[in-house]
Amino acid sequence: DPEISEMHIENAPEMSDESGDSGRTRTESATSVSSESWQNNDEMMGNLRRAQGLLDQGATPLQIIRQIFPDFDVSRVAMMSENAHFALLSDLLERAPIRQKLPEFNSLADAVELFKTRKNILILTGAGVSVSCGIPDFRSKDGIYARLRGEFPNLPDPTAMFDIRYFRNNPAPFYNFAREIFPGQFTPSVSHRFIKELESAGRLLRNYTQNIDTLEHQTGIKRVVECHGSFSKNTCTECGDQTDGMVIREDVLAMRVARCKKCDGVIKPNIVFFGEDLGKDFHRCVTEDKNKVDLIVVIGSSLKVRPVALIPHCVGKDVPQILINRESLPHYNADIELLGNCDDIIRDICFSLGGSFAEMIASYDTIMEEKKEKEPVKEHHPVVSRNKRQLFSQQEFLNICLREKKGTSESEDEPNLKRPRMSTSDNMDTEKDAFHDIQKHKSEDDEDTMNSDDVLKNIKHPRLLNITDMLNDNKCVAISTYQTVFPGAECSFDLETQKLVREVNHYARSGCSTSESSSSDTLSQSNAISRAQSMDDFVLLEERQKLSSEQRSDSCDDNLQYELSDPINPET
């Protein structure tokens, strides 16, 4: 199973912190259990201690899984390597609890009201807030990981580019790519300015950013925690000498490995690679904030990297949560989901809030227009809405879809360029509730199918409409009680079942080299709860597939997998 084989746990050095100790290899984690006390992990830590005890007694990871997680079906992984079993055990031990949705918060209007009334808003941002700045995100279909597969075929896995052990052995690929995301080339987005506006209004408790582009500082946000570090400082991997981030600028732009002037060691920016500790500031701030926060907003993040991904699960059960992202997240139950381009959604919220927020949008548009006139810039400049979008009802949206279905059957040989294009993805995955699992089975040994974007582009599902093409720049649709879809959402509409599906990132389906992607470390060595770690969804997928096999609609395509859920209700 490629989803399981790519799981890995790494051990590595700690990022810089206030004490000045940074970038040096450590034989054990510098983050103690007490620094993880912000996590609601009593059960998690109990299971971890139990697993360690069984491991000390000589039990295999598969035996431990059977003991601690008797409901998990191990038959599908029994033939895999012990490294894969350790990765699976680690993931099971660290799974965040399933959050229960608050029924009183659902709509876009509810989200706007929360932004108006809440005073301690915790915003967790990912790469999605910087996409409009010209910085690619990581996990989308056109993101960094998808590109790395083609541009660096010798990488054992796209995530190896940001893996500390791989960097130590071969820093060249990182330096060949780093100039694309190096600070100083980009202008902060609407999303960054929105967060700054919340701070100016006294409503921002903290911005936890997973980004390393320093755009928060460029925007002037003070209450920010750079969870995964940044390019602002560097550390020599040999002597530990620390320098300003701009010291390596020429090397980065020249795609040349930066060397220490004192010892000629390789210089590493103080960004947190997979396998590195996050540092004391992060844990201290989360501990302070978890009991103060009255609203959590996740913007542009897949929540796949721990321990940052656990923040939404450490707060009180009565704290409402909003997801603003291109796609729904199967492992995270937000109360309100606003799906589409982050900036487009934020613009709509700002228009609804009015006052200084609407003024900020007008000011930003003026700045960007002037910048475009002066010089070509790296930022993306899509057509933007100058006013609040019109909200489609489900009935209106369904009527458009049904008209499209009729038009497709009548004019297959004469495509209409004005019609929404069909989705060309060969690989679909489930969304919870209104979203549905459509994942085409592929042979693991079919290398062309697994790796060729050209092949994927030539395969079409005529039943699927790209939802972004069905929503012009002035429209959005409340596709379910708690989900509103905007342009840019990475999902399609199934004409047959009247359900939404979303595309799977193709890089995640690739097999990985065992030596690079699987950890040989024991549980005591990994201490992965406090380290940056990629979190895959294979456990959730296993459960969804089990559900899908038991309860399937008669209208479901035999070649596709669906999660049980309801189609759009035309009466809503």
Structural summary, described in words:
Residues 1-40, 404-430, 509-529, 541-572 are annotated as: Disordered. The chain is an alpha/beta fold and 572 residues long. Among the domains are: 2-98 and 523-535, no CATH class; 390-478 and 488-503 and 537-572, no CATH class. Helices cover 32% and strands 13% of the residues. It is built from 21 helices and 18 strands. The protein has helices at residues 2-5, 42-56, 61-68, 82-94, 108-117, 144-151, 164-169, 172-177, 190-200, 215-219, 249-253, 280-289, 342-353, 355-374, 394-410, 447-451, 453-457, 467-470, 514-517, 523-526, 538-550, and strands at residues 121-125, 204-209, 224-226, 229-236, 242-244, 267-271, 295-299, 305-306, 321-325, 336-339, 390-392, 428-429, 464-466, 475-478, 483-485, 491-494, 499-503, 533-534. A 9-stranded mixed sheet has the order 3-2-1-7-9-10-15-14-11, sandwiched between helices. A hairpin with a 5-residue loop joins β4 and β5. The longest helix has 20 residues, at 355-374.
